[in-house]
Amino acid sequence: MIAIKPHHFVDIVTEFGDGGTEFQPHPYGHAVHSVVKEILGNRDVVLRIELGADDICAPCRHNINGLCDDTIDTSFRLQAPSPNENGICSSTGAGLNGLASGKTTN
Ligand code: SF4
Predict the structure, then answer these.
(1) What range defines the domain where residue 19 resides?
(2) 97 phi/psi in degrees, rounded to 5
(3) β-strand 47-49 against 2-4: which pairing, if any?
(4) What is the pLDDT of residues 42-54, one digit of tens each?
(5) Which residue's alpha carbon is at the smallest distance from atom 2 of ligand 1?
(6) 80 and 72 in contact (C-beta within 8 Å)?
(7) Contact (CB, 8 A) for 4 and 55
(8) Closest Cα to atom 7 of ligand 1
(9) 49: part of which helix (H) or strand (E)?
(10) Quick one: which of 4, 15, 83, 96 could link to 20 by a disulfide (CB 3.0–4.6 Å)?
(11) Which comes out higher in pLDDT, residue 72 or 89?
(12) Torsion angle of alpha carbons 97, 6, 42, 2, nearest 10°?
């Protein structure tokens, strides 16, 4: 089972849809590359919706005790929500998709 935020799943599908097949380790240290490998290696893997830190966040340098400290740069987009991209994207994505934390799918 993979714990995954809705916006991380959308990121993966978007990249894959754009022809991305080579997911490399990211400077943040997060685990998107290994989670993608796990999903592609087992198309029946169960995904558990997570609104907090997920399996991608686990090794990320921005994961501070389960909270993301990566913020949206509002210097060029003053109306952007702030300060936490992580929580806003996840809760908005979940709300739009009728998802709830802890639900599973595959
Ligand atoms: S901790 Fe923040 S920056 Fe790191 S993977 Fe999670 S959401 Fe992305």
Answers:
(1) 2-105
(2) -100, 0
(3) parallel
(4) 989 999 999 999 9
(5) 68
(6) yes
(7) yes
(8) 86
(9) strand 47-49
(10) 15
(11) 72
(12) -120
